[in-house]
Amino acid sequence: MTDSPTDSPTRVLVLNSGSSSLKYQLLDMADASRLAVGLVERIGEKDPRLVHTPRTGEKRERRGGFADHTAALKAVGEELAEDGLGLDSPALAAFGHRVVHGGPRFGEPVLVDDDVLAEIERLVPLAPLHNPANLTGIRTARKLRPDLPQVAVFDTAFHRTMPEYAARYAIDVETADAYLIRRYGFHGTSHAYVSRKTASLLGKDPADVNVIVLHLGNGASASAVRGGRCVDTSMGMTPLEGLVMGTRSGDIDPAVPLHLQRVAGMSADGTDELLNKRSGLTGLCGDNDMREILRRSDAGDQRARLAFDIYIHRLKKYIGAYTAVLGRVDAVAFTAGVGENAAAVREAAVAGLEPMGLTVDPERNTVRSDEPRIISQDGARVVVAVVPTDEELEIAQRTFALVGTENVRKDEMRTPLS
């Protein structure tokens, strides 16, 4: 597909910037089609690489020459231009940026200006690994296309509807407010998308459906969604709280880090590294890949079996807790890498919960598909579903809805790539 001067600006380039990586997808919101996807990795490091896949499916790869994010995004533009979809395209409406932490201010996507950038910068202490990289992506895109809207879509935004009693920790209010300590939640774009798709799968309006969403990947989170609005979620001020994850501990007695500092002489940075990078499934059995854990467990490896059992036990606790929070549950939706692909996890997570209306049909549960599907037995009181997530599409939709058609181009400001 190539552009022509009459093309309307309906395309959104979604950027997810890491400290040394840049993931991207170009989507056309006229029909929600995906025109290209790609990844630049090891930016500024040895042997950087760009992998670009247009919608024809034929991957292209280039190496070297990505000293910083500006060079990386220019290279992305060159790859897109080879497909007739360059960054200077008249059909490009906006950039949509994933930003991990929106703090207490941002409950919706926002057009980026200097004030928004300053606020995202102010939130860096809440997301020191993510917000700086997200800022780099925004600033790079603004530099290359200052005429186009840049939209920040926040991982925390969907959870801003949590009532105060669910969002606050039971600590001194003045201290909490002074240091922005509260439960924010993460994976919000996924929870928003999956909860809506689940309602659609049931043939109902999201306003009429109560859903427990289980986003199970290397990072994992659960949410209780009542009538399209999040009322509770497992992650807290940071993504460390909640479920057992690939390398994160999830819920833990808050005194454990203090104990380690007092008794083991571990520093604050040391405990942070322990709980975020050397815990979870990795800490329990040395693997964070659920496929490998299941293989080891089936072969009789007791450490892998225990890790799996701990993972499932925590998951069941949250299903039960959110059933109590919602009162009525219409569906439980599994999503993300583990949730979509590990039939054994889904089966174990609901095993024994039949009195709560939860079952899985063994045959339906083992079917692999990229489409949303029901895996519970016919007549089950609560629908159990697998709903593939699409965070990039969610970001693109929210971006395009915000910029509309009247503000997507400012031709008098247009600056060519340099």
Any idea what the radius of gyration is? 22 Å
Please report which band the strand proportion falls in: under 5%, 5-15%, 15-25%, 25-35%, 35-45% or over 45%: 15-25%
Shape verdict: globular
Tally of alpha and pi helices: 15
- Kindly state the percentage of residues in helix: 25-40%
Distance between the termini: 24 Å
Major β-sheet profile: 8 strands, mixed
- For the residues shown, what is the average pLDDT? 92
What is the tally of beta strands? Answer: 14
Order of strands in the sheet with the most strands? 5-4-3-2-1-6-8-7
Q: Which secondary-structure class do the elements indicate? A: alpha/beta
Explain what you see:
The chain is α/β, with parallel strands linked by helices. It contains 15 helices and 14 strands. The strands form two sheets. An eight-stranded mixed beta sheet has the order 5-4-3-2-1-6-8-7, sandwiched between helices. A six-stranded mixed beta sheet has the order 11-10-9-12-14-13, sandwiched between helices. A hairpin with a 7-residue loop joins strand 3 and strand 4 (49-54). Helix 10 packs across helix 11. The longest helix has 25 residues, at 302-326. The protein is globular. Residues 405-418 have low confidence and may be disordered.
List keywords for this structure.
alpha/beta, disordered C terminus, 6-stranded mixed beta sheet, 418 residues, 36% helix, 15 helices, 14 strands, 8-stranded mixed beta sheet, globular
What does the secondary structure layout of this molecule look like, with pairings?
Layout: E1 11-17, E2 21-28, E3 33-41, E4 49-54, E5 60-63, H1 69-82, E6 92-99, E7 110-111, H2 114-122, H3 131-144, E8 150-154, H4 164-167, H5 173-178, H6 188-201, E9 210-216, E10 220-226, E11 229-233, H7 255-263, H8 268-277, H9 280-285, H10 290-298, H11 302-326, E12 331-335, H12 336-341, H13 343-350, H14 362-366, E13 373-374, E14 383-386, H15 391-403
Parallel strand pairs: 1-6, 6-8, 9-12, 12-14
Antiparallel strand pairs: 1-2, 2-3, 3-4, 4-5, 7-8, 9-10, 10-11, 13-14
